[in-house]
Amino acid sequence: MTQKTVFVSGAGRGIGRDIAERFAKEGYLVGAYTRSGHFEWGQNDPNVVQGKMDSSDPEDYKRAIEDFMKHTDGRLDILINNAGVAVIGEFEAQKFEDEKRLFDVNVMGYINGIHAALPYLKNTPGAQIVNISSAASFVGTPDLAVYSAAKFAIRGLTEALDIEFMKYGIRIIDVNPLFVKTDMVEKELEKGYTIPILKTLGLKLTVSDVTDVVWTATRPEKQKSSRLHWAVGKQARALSHQHFLPNAAPRALTRAMAKRNAKKGQ
């Protein structure tokens, strides 16, 4: 099979849907899977294979990958770990079951995906893994404490596996937007939460902004790049540049920025 392939988790709506639609439009065979199994797009697109999958269940993720591989002759060029949930609001007000669910999906779901896809990625020259993360992985974010912790975990996973998977020729990166206008975020905000930093910075990014970075980052000319963390938008890039400079001062500046934005939003 010569057609390139990509598997996208959480592809029913939001960022995952937009990514899946873009890659299908560009000629990839796309495996679009979501927990609900409900899609409002792509049913008649010959470049799209749709299915139901709970990414937090390792056996279900394995089954979904194997299902898609039946359509690709075992070829998997790109795995895009995207499925996620949010827990918004002050830490002390959160429910344990919601926090656990967040880690099951946002961290273990990504780990499950990599385990399930690895045999096929290893057998596909130039294979890539893209973890959809967040600028909350650059600095601990108030009112998103558990979400931020999960994204820190994904950043660490990306950095570690980038080294481990060199022997297989597999490239791994993460993509880090700040706040994106999605149904998931808007539904959480409808519950009445007030996030000072969000009120200050606003919902300026769209799903297409994230998709554009994913598409650019995975092009052949970028595959030899040593860049692991791809920030989306000016605000995220500012946080990224401050965090990764090799001294302690930028870290202090990042924290000061977060505190200042929180106070402005009150």
TrEMBL record:
Protein origin, superkingdom: Bacteria
Gene Ontology molecular functions: oxidoreductase activity
Oxidoreductase is among the record's keywords: yes
Cited InterPro entries: NAD(P)-bd_dom_sf (IPR036291), SDR_fam (IPR002347)
Keyword terms: NADP, Oxidoreductase
One family name in Pfam for this protein: adh_short
PANTHER family: DEHYDROGENASE_REDUCTASE SDR FAMILY PROTEIN 7-LIKE, RETINOL DEHYDROGENASE-RELATED
Listed name of the protein: Short-chain dehydrogenase
